[in-house]
Amino acid sequence: MLHFDDIVFGPVHSRRLGTSLGLNILPVRGKTCNFDCVYCECGWNRDGVVAGKRFPTGDEVEKAMETAFAAVAKDGIKVDSITMSGNGEPTLNPDFPQIVASTLRLRDKFFPEAKVSVLSNATMTYRHEVVEALKKIDNPILKLDAATDELVRCIDRPSGNYSVAGIVENLKAFEGNFILQTMFLKSPDFTTWSQDALEKWYQVVRETRPREIMVYTIDRETPDKRLEKCTVEQMRQFVAPLVEEGFIVQVRG
Predict the structure, then answer these.
(1) pLDDT tens-digit profile of 55-66?
(2) SS3 per residue for the chain
(3) How far apart are CA 81 and CA 73, in angstroms?
(4) Which residues contact residue 6 at a Cβ distance below 8 angstroms, ignoring those fewer than 6 apart?
């Protein structure tokens, strides 16, 4: 499974974001996440347990970015996105707001045309400071894989008291200025595209009104080996009602 051993990695090609410089602001050893998604490229949480893990501080992240960004800029590499993802959920880092501020400053210095993106499961959007930091970046990409608690428990296996209703209320704080990300897949235990599941997902989209929707399917090795990917044509059919209503939808196979 994929783990990142440095704070800054890449550039890598992203099917959604182009040429991307990655930021891992989580412990560099193992995996740190409050989801345990059946499709996670980082594997199961239990396999990422490592003694002595700690979050890099905001100052450590800034120093690593300054060094790496200068080297990439010197090589003349075009960067489309600076993307926080890494070994789990980036907004769990206690210094997340500070890291966003330094990322924006260094982006302006080295790659002024690049977008700053964060891939998040939206669980920390109950914290005002996290929401305010996410509002400052170009692409807050917030995940909601299903519109019912039951299906989320099957797909994302969240820890704590997760509720779709709570996440939906938190997403409304963005007033539409965010990107909603949804994974379509199937297993012997569930399918994410039953008519009922789709209708409930449409309703969430209509309530939160994201400026863009990214739908995608499995692309890498998954910890649950029973999963089946969805075709691009299927996903286009799923999102057709939203496209007809004027929503901007990006489909990636």
Answers:
(1) 999 999 999 999
(2) CCCCCCCEEEEEEECCCEEEEEECCCCCCCCECCCCCCCCCCCCHHHHCCCCCCCCCHHHHHHHHHHHHHHHHHCCCCCCEEEECCCECHHHCCCHHHHHHHHHHHHHHHCCCCEEEEEECCCCCCCHHHHHHHHHCCEEEEECCCCCHHHHHHHCCCCCCCCHHHHHHHHHHHCCCCEEEEECEEECCEECCCHHHHHHHHHHHHHHCCCEEEEECCCCCCCCCCCEECCHHHHHHHHHHHHHCCCCEEEEC
(3) 13
(4) 24, 28, 64
Q: What pTM was estimated for this model as a whole?
A: 0.91
Rounded CA separation 49/71 (Å): 32
Q: Which one-letter amino acid corresponds to residue 113?
A: E
**Beta pairing class for 115-120 and 139-143:** parallel
Say which residue the tokens 């209320």 belong to.
169
Tokens for 60, please give them.
């450590």
User: What is the rounded CA–CA span in Å between residue 204 and residue 201?
Assistant: 5
For 104-114, the pLDDT digits (tens) are 999 999 999 99
d(CA 153, CA 36): 9
What's the one-letter identity of residue 229? Answer: K
pLDDT value at residue 9: 87
Class for the domain spanning 8-252: alpha beta
- Sequence letter at residue 233: E
Give how far Cα 36 sits from Cα of 33, 47, 117, 158, 179, Å: 7, 11, 22, 6, 22
> Which residue bears the tokens 């990006």?
250
Give 128-175 pLDDT, tens digit per residue.
999 999 999 999 999 999 999 999 999 999 998 899 999 999 999 999
